[in-house]
Amino acid sequence: MRPIAQYALYFVAGFLQLWLLLFYWGYSAGPASVLPYVFLVAFLELGLIASSLSLFLEKPGAVAAVLGGAVGLGWPLLGLLSMSPPPFVEAAFLGLLPLIVTVDGFWRLLARRRTPWIELANGPSLVLRTVLAVLPFAITGYLALPFITAVEERVVIPDGYMGKVAIVFHSTYHGLEEGQRDISTMYDIPESGLLLAAAGPIRGWRHTKYFYRPHSGPLRPIETVWSSTIHDTPENRTDPTVGIYLRSFGLTTTGACRFEHETFLVGTKAFILSRGGHTDYELSEQMKVLACEPSQPPNNRLDGPAPAAQPAR
Questions:
Q1: Nearest Cα to 57, choosing from 104, 3, 21?
Q2: Which of 58, 134, 152, 276 could be cross-linked to 184 through a Cys-Cys bond (beta carbons 3.0 to 4.6 Å apart)?
Q3: CA–CA separation, 249 and 262 (whole Å)
Q4: How far apart are CA 288 and CA 194, in angstroms?
Q5: Are 168 and 285 in contact (CB under 8 A)?
């Protein structure tokens, strides 16, 4: 049963890297940190390649494990050697299992150094091995399906706008029926920062992209999204990066009017620190007026394939 134990170790270590990948991707929104990409490489090496290979070819599986473990160890080791090292407990948590996997891989290569590289590992039946080898790919495919089928959502903001943005959904008030979603949805935010959408929010998975709408030329992407607290430091105060901060969903009921809304801040870190990150009373009142006392039907939301660029208004 030796290949099963090797498989189980690499499988658990790989999918722990996948969990960390999803956790840190949500924490940093991807481009804000390199850490999710480190975990992605470690997961591919351990959870998919090393675990599946180890059921059939023990030595190649050990090599893949050493490579994946070394990648997984890279971040905590570099962090401890940096000028601002992370807490030791955090570094130990991130590095413990990759360290065990790396040591295990080296030990197997050393103990079986005289074994041919293409020798089939001893173990259970070929059918059981095949099922176990397919399992990591099946789980990965199942987890990836929502991302593949997600609706692409584009939020287009007036060029240079910094401040609070609110998207108000109130489809029942206007007697509009929700139909089947298209593959892409765009919210064209007006100069006021408040948009009354023509239907409800996207209920399923979505892949959101943010853009500035210049007076001429193509849309300019806003790449950075901050999903956690921005600390008041000199570095953050001088950071010129413009990003999206804390997009949140809410439901408001006032009298006979009931509407859903999503809000976020757009701006630099210094701007966000100076204004705070919560929806204030004034914005709440403006959303109530927009949703419950509309002067005209909503026409700022476009459903369907989002264009690469849009002319200025």
A1: 3
A2: 152
A3: 4
A4: 11
A5: no
Look up residue 61 and give its two tokens: 């599986």
For the record, the structure tokens of 213 come out as 């709408």
Query: Among positive and negative, which fits the CA dihedral 44, 28, 301, 211?
Result: negative
Structure token digits, residue 215: 């007076």
pTM for this entry: 0.59
Read off the pLDDT of residues 137-169 as tens digits, 9 standing for 90 and up: 999 988 888 777 778 889 999 999 999 999 998
What is the sign, positive or negative, of the torsion defined by CA atoms of 168, 173, 176, 180?
positive
**Owner of token pair 């200025």:** 312
One-letter amino acid at 201 equals P
Minimal CA–CA distance to 201: which of 170, 244, 223, 235? 170
pLDDT by residue (tens digit) across 232-246? 899 989 999 999 998
Q: 3-state DSSP call for residue 64?
A: helix
Helix (H) or strand (E) holding 150: none
Residues 6+ apart with CB under 8 A from 212: 156, 157, 158, 159, 160, 161, 219, 220, 222
Q: Can you point out the beta strands (E) in 223-312?
A: 224-226, 242-254, 257-268, 301-303
Q: How far apart are CA 79 and CA 72, in angstroms?
A: 12
Residues (pLDDT < 70) of the chain are 1, 24-34, 79-88, 170-183, 276-279, 294-313
What φ, ψ does residue 97 adopt, rounded to 5°? -70, -40
